[in-house]
Amino acid sequence: MTQDILSVAHDNGVAWVTIDRPEVRNAFDDHLIAELTATLRELDGRADVRAVVLAGAGKHFSAGADLTWMQRMASFGWDDNFADSQALGELMHTLNTLAQPTLARVQGAAVGGGLGLVACCDIAVASDRAVFALTEVKLGLIPAVIAPYVVTAIGERAARRYAVTGERFDAHRAHDLGLVQEVVPEAELDTYLATILDTLRENGPQAMRGAKRLMRDVARVPIDAELRRETARRIADQRASAEGQEGVAAFLNKRTPSWRDH
Ligand code: COA
Fold first, then answer.
1. Which of 43, 117, 175, 222 is the most buried (most CB within 10 A)?
2. Is the CB of 114 within 6 Å of ligand 1?
């Protein structure tokens, strides 16, 4: 599937989703938000897609919300603005909860909502020349719908600082904050991603989805009896599953598990 503002390429079980509006630094308006949300929903849970990479065409990952669209929306009523903002929230939620592992490939600027997209991915790899900022306050705005994902990624304290200052920070600071997990020279971005994708291809596809959901579900909830029952239930289910049995049998019989043949 390919649109003029978004492209999707499939490579050996990995879907590469590329925002393709380099003329506005991959800023997203209502059309792009709708296309990206629909694309992610279509990929969500597909058995033939083991991982999803989110990238931006050109020199930058994404300049966040399209400001000409924001300006246009401001002349509409409150209900339209609310519905429009909910659509952006739905995009972030869809990416954040995608069943498969997600990777952000970050070069250039990841600003505002662009930074939000990075925060929604499981793994983020940045070029050493990448820059980040929550610039909303510089425009008299606030980083609202991305806030929960930013706070989850970098913690409340750092989020408070960068949300109120709008300061730019570089890839190394983003790494220190936990917003990105790896910083590599720009020319090595794809090689590094390929290494991670090879690692993901070795893992049980259902197990990765279960592990991802598990981490999200146990975060920020009390470790009480109910949670302990729930985690026990999840491993009991996975052990008894075809994939769990295949993985353990393959290890004990010193052979590769069947999912690696596909
Ligand atoms: N919305 C709409 N258009 C945008 C945009 C955005 N968020 N970001 C960039 N553009 C447009 C510019 O207006 C410019 O249009 P023009 O060619 O018609 O003049 C074009 O993209 C190139 O922008 P430019 O600033 O010259 O590119 P750059 O490569 O020097 O810098 C950025 C890239 C992303 C660092 C810079 O464009 C920027 O800071 N953008 C604003 C990002 C922002 O604050 N987003 C938060 C929104 S809440």
1. 117
2. no
